[in-house]
Amino acid sequence: xxxxxxxxxxxxxxxxxxxxxxxxxxxxxxxxxxxxxxxxxxxxxxxxxxxxxxxxxxxxxxxxxxxxxxxxxxxxxxxxxxxxxxxxxxxxxxxxxxxxxxxxxxxxxxxxxxxxxxxxxxxxxxxxxxxxxxxxxxxxxxxxxxxxxxxxxxxxxxxxxxxxxxxxxxxxxxxxxxxxxxxxxxxxxxxxxxxxxxxxxxxxxxxxxxxxxxxxxxxxxxxxxxxxxxxxxxxxxxxxxxxxxxxxxxxxxxxxxxxxxxxxxxxxxxxxxxxxxxxxxxxxxxxxxxxxxxxxxxxxxxxxxxxxxxxxxxxxxxxxxxxxxxxxxxxxxxxxxxxxxxxxxxxxxxxxxxxxxxxxxxxxxxxxxxxxxxxxxxxxxxxxxxxxxxxxxxxxxxxxxxxxxxxxxxxxxxxxxxxxxx
Amino acid sequence: xxxxxxxxxxxxxxxxxxxxxxxxxxxxxxxxxxxxxxxxxxxxxxxxxxxxxxxxxxxxxxxxxxxxxxxxxxxxxxxxxxxxxxxxxxxxxxxxxxxxxxxxxxxxxxxxxxxxxxxxxxxxxxxxxxxxx
Lengths: 422, 133
What we know:
Chain B: InterPro entries: Cyt_c-like_dom (IPR009056), Cyt_c-like_dom_sf (IPR036909), Cytochrome_c-type_DH (IPR051459). Chain B: This is Putative cytochrome c. The complex is a heterodimer of chains A (422) and B (133). By secondary structure, chain A is mainly beta. Chain A has one domain (12-420): TolB, C-terminal domain (Neuraminidase), CATH 2.120.10.30. Chain A contains three helices and 31 strands. In chain A, the strands form nine sheets. In chain A, strands 12-13-14-15-19 form a five-stranded mixed beta sheet, with no helix packed on it. Mean pLDDT of chain A is 92; it is low at 1-29. Chain B is an all-alpha fold and 133 residues long. Chain B contains seven helices and no strands. The relative contact order of chain B is 0.19. Residues 1-17 of chain B have low confidence and may be disordered. The A-B interface holds A 68, 145-148, 174-179, 240-241, 243-244, 247, 255, 345-346, 348-349, 385-389, 411 and B 35-37, 39-41, 43-45, 47-53, 55, 76, 78, 80, 89-91, 93-95, 97.
């Protein structure tokens, strides 16, 4: 825990956007063997599900989970605690595609593959009557393996938002290749590297029917519609490999700590700067990327880009964002943001970081305090040297109707439930 | 009979190559090249990153045919490969900016680390492959 506080305090550098970890001294090992703040309890409600990515809770408490890889030929799980004893004993599955995104909205289940978004009509018991015949809402989205997860969110105005991650690190001519220049303008931005908006109920849409809602976002796996202020919020996976590609500009330590992972509010037309810019958490500004003539300090066009509301340590891989709207957690959690960090790999040779769930208090759509580690210990290790060693990695978040927070893990397929006991 | 002789010859060849000492200093030099150019993705222990970058421990590419291996390093790799039932979404960037000697050293290092045991790769072999590009 000490280490986490140190790192966030270091990045905070005083005031400004980057917030400091709060009081995390009152933590204890709960039944699920993860650490949560005093007053909270964590239990495991399901396990061994497969590569459990995002999770959605239906109004009646039924859970839907999207699997990245098919398990027994199926890619969507439906979990039900029929006898209400806290364990989800009834598990059914359907859907013949892997993917990440899942959401329940207005009587429909939405789920994404790596190139499409489908929806299924739900009955009053939150069952899918015809699991074999989903409606293809969006198809033909770019999927070139890298950053291919199509995370989704829905607003209250019949729109579907889809992340189309850039199949690239920094839009070099040859991706991730030393000496290869950046492409300016970056052609990838025409079909990826942003959030696209579609109608939530019109079948067979693709790029032509959709609209590029926000651009300059390298890869967003966590996004959520904030109904409190009616805006879309996203967390970006920042670029990798500053030291491998530009050893003359960055050493291993700088490369491990740059750039910040960013949380944005994105309005229609927002440009968040990728691939031209990255956010430096110490200088607290966006600077020009070295592929585009940057030297680690120059701002150039980056001053005009949308700035982050919160900057987190580098490479932590924010895989889910959830605004808590329940009333079962203490008041300070209301409308605040939970973020599931999958955990880093690009901090090597320095120790890896992340593998935890963070909380940021919010008021009226603005951060109202420092970020803090909310749930920790998923990796089962005191220090993660190689990502392969981590036992669990947080990947998805949902708020259950009973006001608890659900966390999925895509290593073992464990689902954690974190409740407030007072 | 033929088969047996051929088999014996292969065994002999194997025994012979296995006893060949690695070129002096190649492991130390290769380890340095690895740290600057490969470690971020394949990790210090060669275990890779789940779903993103493959392990280098006991894979057919690492321990197998050296010509193919040299070409992965020179040209990179961006197609679906499967190792231990996993596939990887990152591309492997070309490392052609490294010198022939550096590539020879890093491959000799990789072929003799992370539980691997293999013959050395020479700079001359890399030169030959690079000429074909």
